[in-house]
Design brief:
Two copies of one chain form a homodimer. Chain A is 74% helix and 0% strand. In chain A, α1 crosses α2 and α7 packs across α8. Chain A binds a DNA duplex (30 and 30 nucleotides) through α1 and α3.
Chain lengths: 186, 186
DNA sequence: ATAGTTATCAAACTTTTTGTTTGATAATTG
DNA sequence: CAATTATCAAACAAAAAGTTTGATAACTAT
C-alpha cells in the first residue's frame, strides 16, 4: 500500500517534455502538431491524450515542473541560510537554477512564452526584494511596488539575455553586476 | 492613376483587427479559431484567407501596424525636438503611444505575446538610452549593454504594469518615476 | 515468483477545423 | 457609367484533433 507512481507514467512524461523542448527549438510552438510531439517522443497518440488535454496543457505541466524545481531549491537553501543578505542569496539560487535548466528556458523564450515564466520569476524575486528595500530607508517618494517592479524587470531582462547567450559572462560576473546595479537606498 | 487602396480592403482589415482584439480579451489566442474571428468580424471565411495565411499572420500584421504607428509618432516629434534630454522625450512619446493603443497592448499582454511587442519597445528605447548613458561618465565597470538592458527591462516592466492598471498613476507621474529611477551616471 | 492491475499500443473511426474552389453579386474606382 | 475586384455563400477536399476498441506488455504489491 505504497501507492507509488507507475514508472511508465514517469517515463512517458519525461519523453513528452523532452520531445516538446526539442521541437520548440526547431519551430514555432503554434506550428507543432500533437502528432509531431508523439512521433518525436516515440509514443502513441492515444497515450498522449491519456495524460494531457492538448499541447498547451503539456506546456503548462512542463513549466509547472520548472516552478516546483525552483521552489525546492529555495526551500533547501532557506534552512542553511543565516546570512545578512537574503536577496543576493536568492539571486544566486535563481541563477543556478536557470543555468541548470537552461535548455528548457531557452526553448520557452524562443517561443515567446516568457510571460508565464517571467511571472513566477518575478514572484520569487519579489518576495525578498521588497523586504530588502523596505528595511533600508527609501528617500524618493516613488511607490515601493513601482520601485521593485523596476529592479526586477531589470534583473529579468539581463537574465533573459544571459540565458540566450550563455558564454557572454560567468555566473559570478552576473551576480556581481546585479549587486552593483541594485541600490540599497532608493 | 492614383492606385488607391480599395476601401473594402481597409474595412476588412479593420474589422479583423478589432475582432482579434475582442477575442483575445475573452480567451487564449491558442484557443481562437479562424472561424471565430470571421464570425466576430462578420466576414466570410474565404475573405479571411484572401488576406491572411493564418491567425498568426493576422496577429503579426496587427503588431506591425502598432509598430508603424509608433515610428510615425517618433518621426513627427523628432523634427520639433531640439531638447537637452532626448531620452525623456522618447519615453514621453512611448507613454502616449501606449496609452492610445492600450486596448491592443492589453490584449497582447493577456495572451503572453509580449515577446514580440517588448522586442520593439526595447529596440526603440535602446536607441537613445545607450547614447544617454555613453555621454555621461560611467563609473562602474559593467558592460554598457548590460546596463542598458537593466534599465530598459525596468522601464518595460513598469510599463506593462501600467498598461494593465490604467488608473494606478497618471502619465505624468509615470514619466516622473522613470526620470528618478534612471540615473545619469552608472 | 506470481496474480492482479493498468499504461501503452495499433488501428479504425468520428468530428472538428482548416484550407480551396466555384460562380454570382455588390461595392469601389477612374 | 463601364470596368474592375473584393466579398459572398456554398460545396468541397484535406488535415489534424480527438475517441474507442481490445490485445499486450510493463509494473506493483503481496
Amino acid at each position: 500500500m505504497k501507492n507509488k507512481i507507475d514508472l511508465r507514467i514517469i517515463k512517458t512524461n519525461k519523453v513528452l517534455f523532452e520531445a516538446l523542448i526539442t521541437l520548440m527549438e526547431q519551430k514555432d510552438f503554434e506550428k507543432i502538431k500533437i502528432s509531431d510531439i508523439c512521433d518525436q517522443a516515440l509514443i502513441n497518440r492515444s497515450t498522449f491524450y491519456a495524460h494531457y488535454e492538448d499541447k498547451y496543457d503539456l506546456l503548462l505541466a512542463m513549466i509547472n515542473d520548472l516552478k516546483n524545481n525552483l521552489e525546492n531549491e529555495l526551500k533547501k537553501n532557506k534552512e542553511e541560510d543565516i546570512s545578512k543578505n537574503y536577496f543576493m542569496e536568492l539571486l544566486k539560487i535563481l541563477i543556478n537554477h536557470v543555468d541548470e535548466k537552461r535548455e528548457t528556458y531557452n526553448s520557452i523564450l524562443k517561443n515567446d512564452k516568457n510571460g508565464i515564466v517571467i511571472d513566477f520569476l518575478i514572484d520569487v524575486s519579489n518576495r525578498d526584494l521588497t523586504s530588502r528595500l523596505k528595511k533600508n530607508n527609501i528617500i524618493s517618494n516613488i511607490p515601493i511596488d513601482v520601485i521593485t517592479k523596476f529592479y526586477i524587470g531589470g534583473i529579468v531582462n539581463i537574465g533573459i539575455d544571459w540565458i540566450k547567450n550563455k558564454d557572454k559572462y560567468s555566473k559570478e560576473e552576473l551576480l556581481l553586476y546585479f549587486d552593483k546595479l541594485i541600490p540599497d537606498k532608493v
